[in-house]
Amino acid sequence: MSDVFWNDRYAAAAASGEPVWSIEPNAWIERVTGTLPPGSAIDLAAGEGRNALWLASRGWRVTAVDFASEGLAIGRQRAASAGLELDWVTADATTWVSPTPADLVVVAYLQLPAAELTAAISNAIASLAPGGTLALIGHDSENLEHGTGGPKDPAMLWGLEAVRSAAAGLDIIECRRYDRTTADGSVAIDTILLATKPA
After folding, report:
1. What pLDDT is attached to residue 24?
2. Alpha-carbon distance 94 to 92, whole Å?
3. I want to staple 52 with a disulfide (CB 3.0 to 4.6 A). Which of 64, 104, 120, 191 is the partner?
């Protein structure tokens, strides 16, 4: 979907005062990054910045990147209210690479066709410092028939092997399907990847 679609969606959310996504960080991202010593972090395709804001609250120096400036504007307002300082960059995850490598790159629910997702993951890896951590989570292809929520277009769902292949060259800690319990108690099926870049 285009940046126009997402900017319109975030602008409508800002006008209504209702968030598009949860204000809380993703639980898996919180779990796997919560034990890491704070350093520099990038939240790629940050949306309204829920994961970026959580990382900043933990002492990370965070750059939040998204092609929808209206989503970042919401995040910027939340950061100001919380007294947090982050860098906000309007850019496309499929083309943007950080000029300064980071200790952590997070990508959560960036649902793109396979070629574009591979490009975004490659950029995430290129933005990662040696020894740094990459944490990816997205709606898995199995979710369409066996899970709840997420895109209904199969082309926009993650394939486990495609994600693993895109992370070739990293030291993979885990790459698997992950059952996530949603707010209403139903189960969504995600792909998760946690890996480090060789030092």
Report:
1. 85
2. 5
3. 64
Helix (H) and strand (E) counts in the chain: 7, 7
Q: How many C-beta neighbours within 10 Å does residue 63 have?
A: 23
Q: How far apart are CA 27 and CA 179, in angstroms?
A: 12
Distance of CA 168 to the CA centre of its chain: 19
* Burial group, residue 111, by CB count within 10 angstroms (0-12, 13-18, 19+): middle
Whether the CA torsion 120, 125, 160, 143 is positive or negative: it is negative
| 41-69 confidence digits (pLDDT tens) | 999 999 999 999 999 999 999 999 999 99
Q: How far apart are CA 101 and CA 199, in angstroms?
A: 13
Residue corresponding to tokens 């995850």: 93
> Whose structure tokens read 């970042």?
72
111: nearest Cα among 76, 72, 71, 162: 162
End-to-end CA distance of the chain: 36
Distances (CA, A) of 114 to 119, 154, 161, 170: 9, 10, 11, 19
Which pTM does this prediction carry?
Answer: 0.91
Distance in angstroms (rounded) separating the CA atoms of residues 97 and 128: 9
